[in-house]
């Protein structure tokens, strides 16, 4: 039986696949419009048959996330080299996962199917060779018309060099036989970047001549303490990539990724919304190739939001529903960097010139959802969203780019005026939200309600100084 959460000793590969280029016959569900590889690089894990699965379409609508990694494909519990869901549901006769994938695609999204996971028997252990392992995975690709597949090799396979070799070899074969594959390989994270088995995996990949799009680590369950420690591990892993493959710094960053765990980890560590934000800032500023987490099933608040146990169905930290998934959506919207097209009003719609000093863009609203490229006005300036955002105040969040003062406006509010909305005890605030209280601006570090700014033992509110 699957445990309720993820164990860190893992090897993951995400393969983004253009089906037409690969010559794959697409069977039901039919593949929808292709997504950019940035969406497969951001796809968070979701278990469709365990851990009280949420409705992915509802999550898409709430967060803007477009891709998910459905878990897990294993060898049959009875043995053999044919793919099954969780060791019990043969892929060949499946209809339930196919219907779910069809719903996601109909809503404009797509999936990556994850093979492996913690526990159970992996195809790399039973298929015997890289070629046989690749042939088993190709059945999954063909069945679901996949453009992406995720290799998640954990215990007991992770320490089995022959099994890991079969998985790496299978990924290489799929990459070779399917031009345009987006390939990501993930290993356990430690404060030194990765451990002994992770380094052996890198060495094996080098000996195969296999270069995926990125290598990712999972910096949790290893004595980590928040986002700063995760960034430190990513920097250490960056050095290992340079020394192992002889890459320069820019090339190493461009082949590096991260897979996190939201809320309370297996080892009792805590990674809150602010920690996800810290790692997101690092990932986007260093142009990392992947940013994902385990799991969407856990991206909701427990009945007791501060329970001291790890759950497979909730995060064990205070949060709004699907709040952690908004971070992967932001990463997908910002990687690779894109320049949104300039919109031109229809010829039938007359254009008007705003009054001197007025802002032409609509006023920013804390409750509105903005996507990359949209404009809003705030405090006399025009701001452009770089990716999906909601509730993040222009001027206090990286997502907003200042386009300058509106025509004829200094953009400076009257002295002593607080432009942020006034704090309210009855309002629920998410991480990054800015409010005003007693003449100061305050930024929420994570979900909060009823916690008075300046009077909270958990320091949920950060004092940004007087207005």
Automatic annotation (TrEMBL):
InterPro entries: CBM5/12, CBM_sf_5/12, GH, GH18_Chitinase
Alphabetical UniProt keywords: Hydrolase
Compositional bias per record (Low complexity), positions renumbered to this chain: 349-358
Biased composition (Pro residues): 337-348
Start and end residues of each stretch annotated as Disordered: 331-358
Keyword Hydrolase attributed: yes
UniProt keyword Nucleus, yes or no: no
Chain ranges of the Chitin-binding type-3 domain: 361-403, 420-464
CDD domains cross-referenced by the UniProt entry: ChiC_BD, GH18_PF-ChiA-like
One Pfam family per UniProt: CBM_5_12
Protein name per UniProt: Chitinase
Organism for this UniProt entry: Plantactinospora siamensis
């Amino acid at each position: 039986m699957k445990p309720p959460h993820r164990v860190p000793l893992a090897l993951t590969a995400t393969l983004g696949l253009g089906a037409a280029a690969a010559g794959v016959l697409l069977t039901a569900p039919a593949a929808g419009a292709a997504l950019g590889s940035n969406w497969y690089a951001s796809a968070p894990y979701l278990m469709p048959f365990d851990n009280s699965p949420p409705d992915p379409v509802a999550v898409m609508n709430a967060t803007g996330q477009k891709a998910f990694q459905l878990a897990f494909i294993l060898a049959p519990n009875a043995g053999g080299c044919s793919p099954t869901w969780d060791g019990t549901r043969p892929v060949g006769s499946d209809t339930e996962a196919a219907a779910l994938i069809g719903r996601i695609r109909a809503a404009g999204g797509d999936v990556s199917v994850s093979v492996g996971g913690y526990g159970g028997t992996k195809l790399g252990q039973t298929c015997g060779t890289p070629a046989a392992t690749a042939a088993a995975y190709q059945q999954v690709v063909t069945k679901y018309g996949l453009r992406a597949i995720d290799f998640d090799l954990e215990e007991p396979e992770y320490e089995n060099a022959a099994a890991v070799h079969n998985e790496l070899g299978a990924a290489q074969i799929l990459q070779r036989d399917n031009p345009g594959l987006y390939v990501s390989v993930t290993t356990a994270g430690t404060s030194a970047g990765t451990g002994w088995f992770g380094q052996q995996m890198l060495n094996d990949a080098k000996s195969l001549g296999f270069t995926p799009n990125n290598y990712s680590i999972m910096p949790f369950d290893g004595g980590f303490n928040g986002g700063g420690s995760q960034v430190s591990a990513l920097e250490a892993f960056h050095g290992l990539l340079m020394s192992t493959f002889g890459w320069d710094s820019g090339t190493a960053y461009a082949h590096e990724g991260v897979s996190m765990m939201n809320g309370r980890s297996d080892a009792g560590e805590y990674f809150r919304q602010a920690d996800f934000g810290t790692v997101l800032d690092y990932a986007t500023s260093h142009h990392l190739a992947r940013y994902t987490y385990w799991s969407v099933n856990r991206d909701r608040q427990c009945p007791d939001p501060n329970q001291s146990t790890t759950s497979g169905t909730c995060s064990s930290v205070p949060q709004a529903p699907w709040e952690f998934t908004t971070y992967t959506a932001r990463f997908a919207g910002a990687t690779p960097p894109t320049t949104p097209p300039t919109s031109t009003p229809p010829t039938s719609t007359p254009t008007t010139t705003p009054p001197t000093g007025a802002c032409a863009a609509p006023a920013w609203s804390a409750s509105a959802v903005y996507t990359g490229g949209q404009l809003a006005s705030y405090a006399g300036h025009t701001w452009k969203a770089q990716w999906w955002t909601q509730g993040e105040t222009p001027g206090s969040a990286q997502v907003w780019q200042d386009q300058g003062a509106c025509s004829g406006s200094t953009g400076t509010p009257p002295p002593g005026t607080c432009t942020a909305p006034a704090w309210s005890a009855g309002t629920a605030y998410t991480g990054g939200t800015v409010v005003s209280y007693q003449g100061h601006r305050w930024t929420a570090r994570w979900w909060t309600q009823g916690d008075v700014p300046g009077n909270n033992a958990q320091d949920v509110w950060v004092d940004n100084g007087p207005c």
